[in-house]
Structure prediction request, 396 residues.
Amino acid sequence: MQTIQSYDFKGKKALIRVDFNVPLNENFEVTDDTRIRAAIPTIKKVIEGGGSPVIMSHFGRPKDGPNDKYSMRHLVAPFSKLLGTEVKLAPDCVGAEVKAIAQALKPGEVLLLENLRFHKGEEKGDVEFARQLAENGDCWINDAFGTAHRAHASTAVMAQFFPNDKMFGYLIESEVESLNKVLKNPQRPLTAIMGGAKVSSKITIIENLLDQVDNLILGGGMTFTFMKAKGGTVGTSICEEDYLETALNIEKLAKEKGVNIYMASDVVVADAFSPDANTQVVPANQIPDGWMGLDAGPETIARFKEVIENSGTILWNGPVGVFEMERFAKGSREVGNAIVAATAKGAFSLVGGGDSVACVNQFGLADGVSYISTAGGALLEYLEGKNLPGVAAVLD
Ligand code: AMP
Prediction:
């Protein structure tokens, strides 16, 4: 397998699949350039190696072919500025004219192809479209982890045209390495903290993790589905009646597989879903009528912290309370603090999934964790144990 570190880019046109799907305001100005910034190291590596980057991405959701609203032209100026090199824009992403422009690139010159989704073949994973795209380069670098769960022409299908000249970019490489440190080769004990609102949205991940983890901390709104299933009272807490059976099954499976499950023993309840509500701490399975559980209680937090701080590897997906309201953020903050403490002692920690990333940022803990994944759907599918086409295409 080729790697970006060792590949010889001299004189080569390197097709790089990036994720430039950035937000624009009404004046077509980029309002958050994080994704463009994130792609710069891979692009610079090609330039430094004497190659010519040919950049390709989707942008927005154009429905019927070319549409100026979704043209890559809006990205040329901010991209050129961040890269420190003037970027040329191709009139399309395939075709004879584009191929000629790509072939004429001198070492160090950068070409941005027009929006891949102006062609239906991209999302369809059309082989002929992938072949045409492939004509624009001598090698293929996949650096778009966010779309790695899609078998699109540029994210997976075109790999077949570069059997010996395909590789990950830095972004996707570090994402895959970090995930492997958790799922393939973890320092034990491995603890997963799953939180968030509902069991239903996390069930496949939880089931897959039961084969990997030593400890599973289940927190947040899903606590109450488990409590109800075991005969507790949950007041007006969020509870999925259709998943009571599933909850019992998860506990049974965990026991069979020797996984320690930790759930709340006490919770902070409120008489309204509001920062001004009255609150009290009660046993997690004895919530009075008219009260709802919105955060982990002190005894629970202490136990969660002890488990986390004694872990060798930690995966955090989902807050253990309604962290958006400061009064119910303590559990999630303390989970974050414990992860930072464990990381300082040598544990590997990965935080992923929108809301836990928001937590870590809100609490100013981002520098204290080993890796933050912002990949969304691709990360969730990976945690569910699915094969990601964009990763498999490089590895196969
Ligand atoms: P998810 O997207 O499934 O990770 O869910 C994240 C959301 O779960 C956040 O907006 C939290 O406010 C919410 N959440 C966490 N704990 C609770 C709870 N006890 N009751 C209601 N919502 C919760």
Observations:
- The chain is about 35% helix and 15% strand.
